[in-house]
Amino acid sequence: MGWKWRNGLLMGFSFLLLVLFFVSAADRLLKAESGSTYEEQEEDQDPSSSSSSSSAIYLQEVVNFLWQPDGSSYQHVWPAIEFGWKMVVGSVIGFFGAAFGSVGGVGGGGIFVPMLTLIIGFDPKSSTAISKCMIMGAAGSTVYYNLKLRHPTLDMPIVDYDLALLFQPMLMLGISIGVALNVIFADWMVTVLLIILFLGTSTKAFSKGLETWKKETITKREAAKLLETNASEEEDYSALPTGPNDADREVPVLENVYWKELGLLVFVWMAFLALQITKNYTSTCSRWYWILNLLQIPVSVGVTLYEAVGLCKGRRVIASKGEAGTDWTVARLLLYCMCGVIAGIVGGLLGLGGGFILGPLFLELGVPPQVSSATATFAMTFSSSMSVVEYYLLKRFPVPYALYFVAVATVAAFVGQHAVRKLINILGRASLIIFILAFTIFTSAVSLGGVGISNMIKKIQNHEYMGFENLCKYDV
User: Fold this and answer.
1) Whole-angstrom distance, CA of residue 72 vs CA of residue 393
2) pTM
């Protein structure tokens, strides 16, 4: 599995460089059509120096395209809050996005951002910030619902605290990086990254869903044969980890809380919060600004290292996998930690839940779908709330709109969890969670990718600046 993830990252980086070449070439071509060509200059040059001069000019164009110290194309667009058809349609889409996203453990940001941009009328980066607020509301509601549920087949909570402890600190670190990159990166760069990640993860999740569906079918047949053979005897049948079993049995919330692990997770969150608030009183790019940013590394790495060392030495286990163990080598742990950081970067950069990466990754680890969804959402509650704090300090969203859509997402997540859990209990197929996960990711890729490509074409046609923004000169 490690090689697949590494190869995927390498292919994604190569594709990003290829797109960069074509975008800069398209920009150059349009400038040439408008009369800004270099033909007149090249006529006076010697043929021997023409080729090298042309290459140097083209390279300079690429550099200017990507970076202009005073260049910026970003402006806030915050429509006035008023009740109308846009608000109604946006609320309906947001409701279903939160319901499906919470069930799949991905938050629903891939549906929120296009809705906020195309229907409500926010600019893409403000939409990203409000999307993170909605994810926080949906994740909080889902965690409260899940804290009353038990593991499908084992005597433990449906949330795997050890799994969360391994990934959540890295997720938080990635979020801080992603929020900064959200200011720096141009919209077209975000679009390319999104399409690469979402198409890959949705395909992987769908394949995992088909595999789980087949296992469930075999389990059901074996159960039917067992009942026919032992019709005269009363025997309890224990389903495979992909079946519903006791997943809907509710217990008191406090019974499902592991206080030591929860305390460490809250410590990471509080430490990051203190650093972010303190950083708000420093000048951007000042010495203390960078010192406070770098202090996040020992906090997150220290807690993750505590869990990783325990897994390596066998003192701690990922109990939700049951008897199926994992060979926790140093290389494997490093890979998973990097995936956690990448999930956080993607979440902070795109305004999405880190579950878009964590969900498929947990499934690859062999974690049951219910536990994968619950644990990814649990981790997202910490990361999304931290993103909201960072975006608020950067003044990236209007508070009234954010409060309204948080309320919509909170109610929708609770309704979605209840409805889908009942459906799984009736059908006996937990693979529905995986299919919802794959559907939500693919829908997000199409919607966000389509909006991003459309905006990119318009900017190329209008010869707008499409390079990196200057974080040190960012004006909130």
Assistant:
1) 21
2) 0.67
